Amino acid sequence: MIQIIAAGARGCRVCQRRTGRGRPGRDGQGRGQAFRPVRKQEEDLSKVQTAIAVGVVGTMGAIGAFMLSPSPVEATVAIARNTGIACSGCHSDPANPQASALTSRGSAYRACLYGSEPGQPNCNIQILDWQEPKVAPGPRPVALPASEYGQSSTQNDTPAPDMTQETEGSGDAVDSAVPAPEDRAYVPPAQAEPPLPQLPAPPVLLQGDYPDCREDHLHLPDPHDKAININQCTTRLDNYYRDVLTEYRKQMNDYQNEISRIYTEKVAGRMEYSAASRDRFYKEMREEHANSDADGKNMAVYRAAVELYNADRNYLSDRYCYNTGCGGYPIPENYGFMNMKSASGEPVKQSKQTAAKASGDQSCKKSRGRGGLLGGIFGGVVGSVAGLDSVGTLIASAASAVLVGEIACKLSQEEQEKAAEATIAVVEQEKVGAVAEWQSPTRGGVSGSSTVTALNTEPNGRKCLTITDVAIIDGEETRVSKQMCRGAGQSQYAIMA
Questions:
Q1: Which of 6, 22, 285, 328 registers the highest number of CB atoms within 10 A of its CB?
Q2: 185: helix, coil or strand?
Q3: Spatial CA neighbour of 453 closest among 465, 470, 471
Q4: By C-alpha distance, which of 84, 81, 62 is closest to 73?
């Protein structure tokens, strides 16, 4: 049509030229004036023809596109066939592409076609370069080595498969099951657990440090010399309490601090030891710490030594008064006779009775069974005794706690037990005149008795009994007095001044 319109226009212009309409005359002036209007008309006509042609072509193109454009499904199929991608790449069922679901690639291609915007790259090019989205792999489980935390269950577990996938369009295999180094959990290298530190041994009290001097005065004939010896022994006992027993208590406190330090600095929080090992060491440390308390079993020997110190010191206080005439005792007849001199400077002669008594005392040196008591205390016999009352009962029940050395040293251990039972019997009666006799189980000519001769109750509730012990050995009588007291609230009597 455009060509027809253009040809008609040109035909009209030719006609105008042939008829001479509008052509200039033969004279030059008329020809020039007639030519200008004709050219102007031709230019205007040309512009009109161009506008009409553009409008006609646009209208015909729109009508043709409307008449020839297929439906959306037909357009998709028609366009998809030109992408160079197999139908199975976009459709789950290529045999029935319209009814089957689209794959992820097909969905991406469809979204590109129907959602394209000006300036977007060609969908055919995009779909050729399209790749399946990758999912970042999670951390791969790693079996921990066996330890005391618990055994890893690797025996029943099958190893994880090595999952790799190959990226389309490339030949590189990517291991999706191996996590990145920064995502891996730290697994300490397997190594043998080092040995735990050893707790040091607690401090001990030695029997050799105890001053067993309470009966050293027995071999001295003069009561005055006995009193001096008793004072010396009392001083040694006090020094033992100050330098040994008090220092031992400080050493036990230092021991508790040391075992606590070992756990805190060498075991607690140290990852080279398993949790079970650290807990076991802590439990042992706490048990040893409790055993070293004042009422713990590590302090049983200390408690027994303190009780023995108190018993011996009370005994020496009583024996001092017995030999000097204090605390209700009469002054001995032979007191100071060894030191008495006449005006000429010579020793005073002794009576036969005094001389016999002195010679008898010289034959008595130390009570039998005394060494067994000390060996039982410091040798660990009371090491398992934890209670203070149990240790006190052990010391108080010994024969040396109720018998004086002047008689005990002349008796066997079995005879000492019989004499101690007689003393306990009169003490339980708590009345003046109470008497209890005993017989030797091993020797026929040995016997004795205990008699309460005085009872004194002090305002503070303290009670004291004066008891006279008698021992007859082969017709020879030994008579010795003693005082046994108990404080207010106490249940047992002990020899003391």
A1: 285
A2: coil
A3: 465
A4: 81
